[in-house]
Amino acid sequence: MPRHGKDHHIPPHRINYRANIFAMKKLGVNYIFGPCAGGSLQPDIKPGGFVICDQFVDRTNCRIDTFYNGPKAIHISTTEPYCPELRKIVMESAKELDISCHSKGTVVVVQGPRFSTKAESRWYSSQGWEVINMTQYPEVCLARELEICYVNISIITDYDTGLGGNPEIKPVTGKEVVEIFNRNIEKLREILFKAIPRIPKERKCICSHALEGSLIS
Question: Which domains are present in the chain?
């Protein structure tokens, strides 16, 4: 399901993340594979490759990011925001297909729709974070609030501007992002078709009982 709409007309800060995730829950979905385009913040994360993120840093603002606005106070844990079981399945699938894939990484989620300044990019890179993206938050947390397993597959489309202060790295353009993303769609399909049949019939991961102990009264 394209987050930005069929014709990519919905900017990242206007996506109705809650509606998308709630619709999945109503349909009885227990597992969500969340591919996205991402920029690289580290030299060894090369465009055209994949990163299966295990952490995120939220740099967005004013996004509606919870289903629980009261009167109950729900506090879910996001120590491990991405489903460890799904991550393992995706990583094993990519390895068997001999597709370049980093087994972990932190994605910093920016508000968008603009791209980063050089100063911002250098800061994110200096923190050791690997990927930059505009849509992972609050999507992953909303899935956890509804006890849905969620895995991120970041398709690296470019080196973020200002990476390492390298003057040879040119500012990214929207056109280039789309071109590289489209070139890697077939690899993404291969990973998904390999991973989906391996989904366990019984859920025992942290996502399946995320709401246990989360109510404070």
Answer: 32-216 (3.40.50.1580)
Q: Is the pLDDT at 167 greater than 70, yes or no?
A: no
**158 catalytic per annotation:** yes
Choose the catalytic residue: 44, 54, 58, 160: 160
Give the pLDDT score at 172.
Answer: 64
Of residues 171, 78, 177, 94, the one with CA closest to residue 134: 177
Residue 30 has pLDDT above 80, yes or no: yes
- The answer to whether 58 is a known catalytic residue is no
